[in-house]
Amino acid sequence: MSHFVLSDFILVRVFQKTVGFCLHSVIYFSAITVPYFLTKVLRDAPEWVLEKVILRCGELIHRRKDRLVFAAKVPKLGAFWENPNRDRTALEIFGFKKNADPLQQAYLSAPYTSPMYGGNLSTLLAPLLRPIRSVKGMGYEREIFTSFDGQEVAVDWLHTKHSAPKGVLAVIPGMGSTSTSYYIESFVRHATNCGYHVAVYNMRGKGGPKLTTGVIASAAFTDDIRALFAKSLSPASLQYRFGSSSLLTVAVGFSLGGSQLMKFLAEDREKVNVHAAVAVCAPWDIHESANKFTSLLATAFFNPRLTKGVMSYLQDNKDALLASSDVCPQVKTILNDPRGSSIFSSLREFEQNVICPQMGYPSVEAYFDAANSFPLLHKVEVPLLCFSADDDVFTGGRPVVRRWERICAVNPRLLMVGCPSGGHLAFLQNPIKELFSAPNFMETNVINAIDSVITYKYDKVRRDVPDIVYERHIRGEFENDKDGDDYSL
Questions:
Q1: Is 251 helix (H, G, I), strand (E, B) or coil?
Q2: Which of 111, 257, 303, 386 has its CA 20 to 30 A from that of 47?
Q3: What's the number of domains the chain is made of?
Q4: How much is the pLDDT for 199?
């Protein structure tokens, strides 16, 4: 019987892929191919004739910037980094290169290579074109750790098959997402193929054990992430799991998980076992992000789905919340409402009627202030790459350039990279690449940046210690030298 069920499942996935490919091809042809051809014929050809044939005076009109990837101006690391790298910038540490054109120094040398869909279109299409890709699952190994209040939280591990792993990635999904969300599975698969062990955190009461306490997850809540790094990702835990605690740990947060990660790093600073971090499509200003949900398209497509998702989270943990003395009466009344998950029509209503009374915030604005990570970035003590899309329909794109450059002047470990397109966690490719699940622009560049920062860390060790000790370090054969010299990272 199971054989037929598996066969039917495979057929459904093949059907989904086929329909998705056909739909994506039609959209790609009408929204990308035809406009591109018309642009070349009606605009670029006359420009070329004007510049090269008639005027013969070089390039009059600068190359179009719509595909260029923005990178904020960053100072040298100086005293903020180890001696050999003080003359470098965070841009170089993460492996990015500036555009050679003096007029385009605010951009990277490599352009955005994926189709330039609009943010709304790509964000809507991505979940439809990327169903769960594996028939038998990802093969995660589940670990349960206990948080500060006794709540059990799930971490899903996927180990690389490489004989010499590069490091450990701690992945923090967006609010309401889990290790099985489409964008998390895609990133985890690419990361393990590139030689990294991956640990995916699942927020309390979602994707793992149900809630047993009255504490619910929110944008300002970082205690479970703190427990994650203190327990499952501590040097002692990594030593037990891999036989070595010398593997570098890099944290990668997506969407609101990226904002929580940055807030946590600013709060705990040097006390955590994190050597670098990446925040992908994280909201820099929660107030601005909330304003994005008032647009017509957001009200019609995104807001209702997200609101239903957070209410379903409460309903799934209804029994524990009703039994807990820590849950306020207003939230218990909402849980007993017969309308269930459809009681609220917007995220703001949910935050005002559930999060604020339960977490003790006097207003939604006070809650947003507590959840904001941007004002805390000057406190982050590790290299931090903030990777975003200018047309992100949830977060509002990158911050104002001058604000970012002021923060970088205070903390040069930070780097902001902004793509001209990509939507919210979508970064769609052409139909052929999507059909074969090729790594997208974000996944490729984020893993390359992590490779670069880890290489600099290992190069630092190699410059500072004898070759034989370096080789032992790579194999994870020591913590401290027998004579008492500390060569750990």
A1: strand
A2: 111
A3: 3
A4: 98
Residue 386 structure tokens: 């903030």
Q: Is residue 339 part of a domain?
A: yes
Residues spanned by the domain of 469: 114-285+375-474
User: Per residue, what are the HEC states of 143-167?
Assistant: EEEECCCCCEEEEEEECCCCCCCCE
| C-alpha distances in Å from residue 276, one per residue of 20, 267, 386, 402 | 36, 15, 11, 24
Identify whether 8 is part of a domain: yes
User: Is 292 within 8 Å of 378 (Cβ atoms)?
Assistant: no
Maximum distance among all Cα pairs of the chain, rounded to whole angstroms: 81
Do 141 and 263 have their domain in common?
yes
195 Cβ contact partners less than 8 Å away, ≥ 6 residues apart: 160, 162, 164, 165, 166
How far apart, in whole angstroms, are the C-alpha atoms of residue 426 and residue 423?
6
| Residue 158 sits in the same domain as residue 246 | yes
- 318, 391: one domain: no
- The verdict on 367 and 308 lying in the same domain is yes
Cβ–Cβ < 8 Å for 281, 425: yes
| 169: its two tokens | 């990635």
Reported as a single tens digit per residue, the pLDDT across 63-113 is 444 777 888 777 666 545 554 555 578 888 899 988 777 667 678 888 898
